[in-house]
Amino acid sequence: KPENVLLTLPDTNETLVKITDFGLSRFINETTLMKTFCGTPNYLAPEVLSTRGESSYTNKVDVWSLGVILYICLVGYPPFSESTSGTPLNDQIVQGLYTFPDEFWSDVSETVKDLIRKMMCTDPVKRLT
């Protein structure tokens, strides 16, 4: 989530990105399958929500979460919200019910929107890696 992404400005002209809060993290390799049901609901990938710890998922869940963060960074609000939709949050995520309203997205290129679509593809097999 954005609260765990820190930007530092050292004495150079470069900005360093630091990621924090690894309380429930562990080292994995490309063949490791995860089953733990954990995370902040707005950033959970559909496969985490739909399996609820009963089945495994891969590190592609991180690509989904980064897509959600990118969405928020570009327009200042999350792609999924119970307060703006009559659909429960979990259903919005599992079904991929997000949009790019022109009111907020008109200045964002189609290339960037396509990147978000690929990062937030509900099918992890088709999701950008």
TrEMBL record:
Residue span(s) of domain Protein kinase: 1-129
The keyword Transferase belongs to this UniProt entry's keyword annotation: yes
N-terminal signal peptide: none
One of the record's GO molecular function terms: ATP binding
Annotated InterPro entries: CDPK_Ser/Thr_kinases, Kinase-like_dom_sf, Prot_kinase_dom
Record keywords: ATP-binding, Kinase, Nucleotide-binding, Serine/threonine-protein kinase, Transferase
A Pfam family per the record: Pkinase
Keyword ATP-binding recorded: yes
Protein family (similarity comment): Belongs to the protein kinase superfamily. CAMK Ser/Thr protein kinase family.
Protein name: Protein kinase domain-containing protein
Organism phylogeny: Eukaryota, Metazoa, Spiralia, Gnathifera, Rotifera
